[in-house]
Amino acid sequence: MIIRPLSLGAATPVALRSIGEQCLSALPRQQLRSAQSTQRAFTTARVLRNALSKGPGQAQRLRTGYFLNNSFLPRTAIVSKARASTSTSFTASQPPIPARDAAAPVTETTPEVDLPHRRRQKARKDAQAASAEAGPEAAAEPVIPPDASSVLTTASSNLPINSFKRTLSTLLALTKPRLSFLIVLTTTSAYSIYPVPALLSPAITDTPSLSALTLLFLTFGTSLTCASANTLNMLYEPKWDAMMSRTKNRPLVRGLISPRGALLFAALSAAIGTGALYYGVNPTVASLAAFNIFLYAGVYTPLKRVSVINTWVGALVGGIPPLMGWAAAAGQTATGSGDWKELLLGYENMGGWLLAALLVAWQFPHFMALSWTIRHEYKNAGYKMLAWTNPARNGRVALRYSLVMLPLCIGLCAVGVTEWSFAVASTPVNLWMVREAYRFWKYEGLKGSARGLFWASVWHLPAVMVLAMVEKKGMWQRVWRAVGGAVEDDEWEEIEEDEIPGKTTVASV
């Protein structure tokens, strides 16, 4: 017996009666193999005859589920895929279904009824068809956080025109607040990690300590120079920002500020920021900040549409802020002229370069995972990124630089910036990053590996920087001396000299 696709909602009583007659005529007339099969056949025939004898109105009771749930029907040849062109109802004018031979194979198709699992299957097929234009596995791509500039732009567009809050919100959106905050965080962290001798000594005048005023100038100047670089970046690419969902809501794309106004804001931010670093910190830090503006806005930004080497240039941009923080702290303990050679070169400044290398290495797994989620948008906008030009290499680069962070953390201990306990404490965090980078390389971003690596990188950097500050060289010894009043080393030497046998002191008259 063949059960064709049926939609009972559209069938009439006459049509249902015709179905019952066709099913009754299709029952096997041959001798059945067992008494149990014979009993089931007679039971099915009796149900059909009783229902049909009561008229067309009673035929509504013969639901499709009766036939599909009856064990009399074979289950071995059910076809799960129904053709879209199959009719959804039967009419009385259709020819009856011929009786089949008992040994002939039975083919059934599941009825196209609007059941929940059918709706879910249809939704999945529609999602796959919609994502086919963007590329394979687009529906499985992880969702990245919304761009902070776009969120601020939306908020400012709802404010009254020419209001102070609207202007302030628009200018803040030009600075890329999250990126600027990350840069300031790495700068001030390197400043605090610098190993100043006896930083927490009870006697403040005994040894130099880091200045809070210098830290304030460093934070203020770095924030403004970041704002200038990010604004110039937006000024260069509003045409291509409009092509990407993550950046299409930025201020210049929405027209909330004119290019002339944005350029003026970038110029003032650069001038005030570098001036604050020059007079409040030192000329070396101010020069590094000005160079970073040029490198980000003048080299990295236009290079994004030329070559994938732009990713390495962008990583260098991220490695300069830790050097700025290190040079700001080193300038307070300089014994010479305090020029860039004394603040950045030499073995005593190896810690600053290791921190810069750590930031450079961190950016690769972070950006490779981030760019993979929007690789098709990068491609449509014309940006040369490994995520779409060479996905296999994209994963290898992320894994390679995640492995580099392990020896870099050990190197901070070897040069005396942190205690050796930092190497132990940072290893689980680094191994977490390596694990996610390995999955990202293995699955090429699929199976949630890109999302896992992205969030691992988001938490990795602050965790490592905080651990480095907590495990700073000599930090807890100085805290203990400050709290417990322990005897200093020079005091122990004076005590030992006083206890030498036969040594007497002559009292002055």
From TrEMBL:
Report the InterPro entries cross-referenced here: Protohaem_IX_farnesylTrfase, Protohaem_IX_farnesylTrfase_mt, UbiA_prenyltransferase, UbiA_sf
Recorded GO cellular component terms are: mitochondrial membrane
Using the UniProt record, name the top-level EC class of this enzyme in a single word. Answer: transferase
Q: What GO MF annotations does this protein's record show?
A: protoheme IX farnesyltransferase activity
Q: Where is this region: Disordered?
A: 87-144
Q: List the residue ranges forming a coiled coil, or say none.
A: none
Q: What is its EC number?
A: 2.5.1.-
Pfam annotation, one family = UbiA
A GO BP term here is: heme A biosynthetic process
Q: Which residues cross the membrane?
A: 179-200, 212-236, 257-279, 285-303, 310-330, 350-374, 403-423, 452-470
Topology with regard to the membrane?
Multi-pass membrane protein
Q: Keyword Mitochondrion on this protein?
A: yes
Compositional bias ranges of the Low complexity kind: 128-144
Subcellular localization is given as: Mitochondrion membrane
Q: Which UniProt keywords apply?
A: Heme biosynthesis, Membrane, Mitochondrion, Transferase, Transit peptide, Transmembrane, Transmembrane helix
Which CDD domains does the record match to this protein? PT_UbiA_Cox10 (cd13957)
According to its UniProt record, which protein family does this protein belong to?
Answer: Belongs to the ubiA prenyltransferase family.
Tell me which HAMAP family the record gives: CyoE_CtaB (MF_00154)
Q: Which NCBIfam families match?
A: cyoE_ctaB
Q: Please explain the role this protein plays, according to its UniProt record.
A: Converts protoheme IX and farnesyl diphosphate to heme O.
Name under which the protein is recorded: Protoheme IX farnesyltransferase, mitochondrial
Gene name per UniProt: COX10
